[in-house]
Amino acid sequence: MTKLTGRCLCGDVAYVANGDIAMQGNCHCTDCRQSSGSAFATLVFMKRDDITVSGEVKTFDHVVDSGNTLTKHFCPKCGSQLFTANQARPDSLGIRAGTLNEHEEVKPQFNVFAKSKMSCTHLDPDIPAFDGMPG
Ligand SMILES: [Zn+2]
Ligand SMILES: [Zn+2]
Question: Any idea what the Cα angle at residue 19 is, between residues 14 and 23, rounded to 5°?
Fold first, then answer.
């Protein structure tokens, strides 16, 4: 059981997560790079029911290669992206790790979409890297 807290840049949106971290990893896909504005996105997945959000988020839907719709949740005031949801896993929410206060809980277990990583990004050789999404 892990307790995580986080917020957006302006503080209008905050969240508390109480539960088990299902998995966490770095995604280097083009969508994650563009939506986060960073070289890659680090996501910490927990059960949606374990996350309580205060403040109002806006959402943006987009369809990915698998045909599933992903939904990005962001603060309408400052634009910080807080969560990403996948239609294929409706019970799960990916927390954008950059918004977390508990840095010590962020331990990526894998890199996915390594084939589309930026050339400057160095991958940790101690965790597996997948060209796309495994499975
Ligand atoms: Zn904000
Ligand atoms: Zn991605």
Answer: 95
